[in-house]
Structure formats: C-alpha cells, structure tokens
What does this fold into?
Amino acid sequence: MALNESPQSPPAPTQSRGTPMISVRGLTKRYDGFAALNGLDFAIARGEIVGFLGPNGAGKTTTMKILTAYLPQTDGEVIVDGLDVSQHSLEVRAKIGYLPESTPLYADMLVYDYLRHVGTLRGVPKGELGNRIRQVAAMCGLGDRIGQEIGTLSKGYKQRVGLAQALIHDPDILILDEPTSGLDPNQIVEIRNLIKTLGTNRTIILSTHNLPEVMATCNRILIIHKGRIVADGTAEALEQREAASQHLGLILERADLEAADVETELRRLQGATRVRCAETSADSLRFELESLRDTDLRPLVFALIVARGWRLLELRREQMDLEGLFRELTREV
It folds into this structure.
C-alpha cells in the first residue's frame, strides 16, 4: 500500500466527554535521588493525537514506560480509561498498543507468524486471529510482505511491523516512542501519514524530540524539559503565546566588560521582563532580552549603550516561532 504525503493539517482533536482517556497527576520518578520526572500533570482526551516533545534525557521515555505499566512511578497518579496503572497494570496494558524506540522483532520469523505470536500473547481469540492479522497488515501496508522474513525487510517495513504488533489487539490507545527514528525521508512520510490515519479513532501519544514530526502529525503539543511540563497546547496557541512578547539579540564588544555587570544594567531597563547572557567569548558578549509585545526595548538599549560607552556589534529584533519557543523552553542554563 503506497502512502502519499497529505497536504492537510492534522485532524482537530476529539473533545473529551467526561473522564479523560489518560490522566496524570503529580507524576514523579526518582533514580537514586535523581528526579527523572518531577510532578507531571496533564490529561489527554479520547481521539487526540498528542506530541510529547522534548530533548534527549527530558523524561519522555520514562513517562511512556510508566503510562504503559512497564515501570512503576515513585509518586503521583496515572489513570488510563478509569484504571489506576499501579493497581490494574494488566488491564491497562490490554488497552494500550506500545511501539518502543527499538522494536523487539524476531528477524528469522515471517511477518505473519510474528503477528500471530504477538496476537496470541495479547489474548486475541484464536478464531479471530487470522482476520485480525490481515486487517492490521492491510492497515500498515504489509499485505504483500506478510509471508516475508522480518530480517529481510527494510527499516521502514520493519517499523510497519512494529506498528502492526502494537495494533494487533485493537487498542484504544497507541503510544509511539520515536516512531520515525532512523528512517529516510520517504519512510518518514509513510509512517507519518499512517499515524494520522490511525488517529482518526484512537488516542495517540507520539514521543519524540523532532519538532517537525510533531507539527506535521499532532493536534496538540506537550513540551517536557528536565522532568517537567513546560508548555501545553496546539501549535497555533503556543505560537500566539510567543507573539505576546518581543525578543532582542544584543552583541557587545567585550573589551573590559563583565557580563554580570552588563546584565544587571540591562535588567534595570523599564519593560524588560527577562535578560540573560547567552554567550561569552574573548572578543564579545551576547545577551538575549525579552519584553511585553507593546514594549520596544531597542531605543532604551541603544541609549544605555551610548551612555556607558559600550561598543555595539549587533542589536536585532528576533522573530520567535514554535521552533524558537522549543529552543527557549529547553535551553540548558
């Protein structure tokens, strides 16, 4: 089955009626005193395709493992379709299809035999298993590969097999961890469109650090950094949030200037809501400033530079889009 890139935007989320499909409150996970997750709170409605976005090490995979009942939390509550994962782990697993970043496939098995094996483990009734295998094979574009050994498949087709095994028991929820990792551009397009098709009647969480992937596939974005949720909303809403502020980039010749002294002076400017020294070198100091949308700091910054006798190398107003917001929210300081 050939899948072509769709020019359409991701579908609008289905509105939740009553209890959310997934509810997370105060989720915390510690390893020997290190907090991989630090009080996560979010809820996901039935029918939403949610991008769980963050840099490597942000806590995405840990969250996915707890949601799928493969890893216990240290503290907090996770409810999946009304069931507490810590008390009803088997029932929760039955409701979820999980595609880990490295899908555990058996290279010497035929695609059909592998899906039959997974379907049996997942409790698909024997009398329905054959039909179910054919259904997910067609859904995932594996119809002409069903009798092929998995080890002979391309990486893109192996990823399709991974999606098929996650779907074999017809779950209400799909959790996909880096589903396009390592794929070429054509394979990424195919898997992306497959995910959008699957999301028409399922709740999907797509965990990734790839912003374009989320923007092309999801109708809501959760950004996580250092174990905390730092943004939650549609791409449009998050971009509008950034439109409410202005951002300036400033570079000064270093000479005998101290970064801390300059930063202190800049913070005193009326209307400045945030100032940070972003980079220092032997020759220059680079600062980032933020103000409210209706406050242009440039005249004040320029007047300060003239008054102090600093040598200006660059002063520019930066346009902050969703990519800029992601970089800003996940910046290491």
Observations:
- Residues 126-139 form the longest helix (14 residues).
- The domain at 240-329 is CATH 3.30.70.3100 (Alpha-Beta Plaits).
- The chain has a mean pLDDT of 86.
